[in-house]
Amino acid sequence: MLLRKMTYSLDDVIKEAELEFKNAKDSASLENSKARFLGKNGLITTFFKQLASLSIDDKRQQGIIFNNAKKRIEQMLVEKREYLQKMELDARNSNELIDVTLPGRGKMIGSIHPIMRTQERIEKIFRSIGFKVIDGPEIETDWNNFTALNSPLGHPARSMQDTFYLDFKDHKNDLPLLLRTHTSPMQVRYATNNKPPIKIIAPGKTYRVDSDATHSPMFHQIEGLWISEEVSFADLKGIYTNFLKCFFENDNLSLRFRPSFFPFTEPSAEIDMMFNDGPNRGKWLEISGAGQVHPNVIKNFGLDPEKYMGFAFGSGLERLTMLRYGISDLRYFYENDLRFLQQIRY
Ligand code: DAH
Known about the structure:
Elements: H1 10-23, H2 27-38, H3 43-50, H4 56-95, H5 114-127, E1 132-133, E2 139-140, H6 142-145, E3 165-170, E4 175-179, H7 185-193, E5 198-207, E6 218-228, H8 233-248, E7 253-260, E8 265-275, E9 285-293, H9 295-300, E10 309-316, H10 317-325, H11 338-341
Parallel strand pairs: 1-5
Antiparallel strand pairs: 2-4, 3-4, 5-6, 6-10, 7-8, 8-9, 9-10
Bound molecules: 3,4-dihydroxyphenylalanine.
Residues 182, 184, 223, 262, 265, 289-291, 312-314 line the site of 3,4-dihydroxyphenylalanine.
């Protein structure tokens, strides 16, 4: 027990410190005890305070005695401190032992998103018949997205593609930049910088102010463009028919090219397809816009429309993916629900 006397002899203090340090169970209580003996108002310190009233000789004599006592207590403290630290470290080491025999944590295997799977499948098909795959920015100029494609400012066809405008302007014509509404501006980008024959597809993200079960504000398209001295609408029919048969791995399907309107093609068509077997058999499904590239657009590419002609198409990747896998709602693609995503592995 601690001594609680009004006056202490130096020996009492040493004994008490010895006892108290011995009883300290951990570093925290040891450091508390230290304060009681060696702190600013500690027991040893009070002895030093008494020195003030002594003569010089007594001061020297007593000072040596007090200092020895202090050193003794400090020595005991250091020993106990080292002992406790070692104990605490040992305890920690044995608690934190690693069991090397436990089985490892398995890694989750990710998979390619269904839309990317479709994109890769399409790229492979078109590469096999000599098309180059190109890529470009999602932020576009008004010229590339609309005007060069025969939809000048104020053209009513622009309202079919309501978009997101940026606060930044295109320095060339002072019009705001925008998120591309379709992949068609890739036609302009590529054809103004490359000489015919031009034979490309351009897959990527597109944006419109649209959101419901079959529309998402961000969606994917794939653009196709073939320009040369003789390629025509007839080539479009052959190529697109073969593409769909390869894509769905099904020869038993029909296509129709329904007259339509796009400012950048003349004639323009909506491509519809129909499965002749399977669960979707007998229904016409709209799959792509297409057409023969308009002479004004050829001119905007910087090419002579008397010399060059060609076809273009723009198809929605979500639509193709939904049909291939029988998916009913487009929003599944963007919910990141693994139960959905993991079903599509091929
Ligand atoms: N860009 C059109 C759209 O998003 C689709 C399209 C139609 C692309 C006809 C074309 C085309 O290249 O020739 O609605």
